[in-house]
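Table S2 (continued). Query chain:
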Amino acid sequence: QVQLVESGGGLVQPGGSLGLSCVASGRILSIGTMGWYRQAPGKERELVADITSGGNTNYADSVKGRFTITRDNAKNTVRLQMDNLKPEDTAVYYCHAVIRLYGFMSYWGKGTLVTVSS
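Corresponding output:
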């Protein structure tokens, strides 16, 4: 079974920083695009940022200039560095990856909670 495990969530004050990590493990031939999504209470899950296997990145307008997504292909890891956090960033953050076995499949982590509050 392929697993995505997130870490790094927690409580941070507005203007603070937090780093999230996600590690993929299991039966994996290759990993395509990896990314981070978030879901706040009462809202739909939305894309925060993603990154292709070649390193091309994409960010939601709301986080541009504040968040940075990176990956380490050798370690099957994707990271999200979040700076200048705002209360509006409060949500459960989910790791996502497209993983190839015979074909490409989408996998999700269980999520890690980020709370931005004084």
